[in-house]
Amino acid sequence: MEAVFGWVSTYGYGALFGLLILGIVGLPIPDETLLVFCGYLISQGKMSAPATYLAALAGSCSGITVSYFIGRTAGLGVVHRFGKYLHVNEQQIERVHRWFDRRGHWALLFGYYVAGVRHFTAIIAGASKLEFHTFALFAWSGAATWVAVFLTLGYVIGEQWRAVDEAVHRYMTYISFAGVALAALFFGVRWLLRRRAAGAAS
Questions:
Q1: N or C terminus of the chain with fewer C-beta within 10 Å?
Q2: Total Cβ atoms within 10 A of residue 179
Q3: Considering just the CA atoms, what is the radius of gyration of the chain in Å?
């Protein structure tokens, strides 16, 4: 991890861009930690906020787009074959596949925040032949908010970024499940309201 910080400190925005491409595709890059660290550098005046955000956003969007085209051309076979190298097991693949079948677009949007998901939601989207403009709308919107959240976290907490980052990672799974549950509740309530409205209209 220290090597990653050293690359960003030495090579700046280019390193941030490249590392996030690799991390989103699935290599073991500490993506959130990297963004929090860059937010800290912004607070110290060592990086520019607009340039950092644009570099991180471009890297995230590029990485998830590469994953989409991997799925589009190679299909889900690539996930099953190389999943062990991306820290992905069969249970995770099945879970995300079911989730994508139900709420595929939203899986792309919120998948960034779910532990072990963002690395291959785009591959599943590509393998499912989701139209590119729909993929880009949801996946790139998710990247925009995800980057903003973790850069802001690093900026706000400043010198305490390491301690807070460790706590975030420790509870990331629970936060992820809570977020998914809230999203499911929201869509469930909306579906029920629409059914009631349709019933009343008929």
A1: C
A2: 13
A3: 18
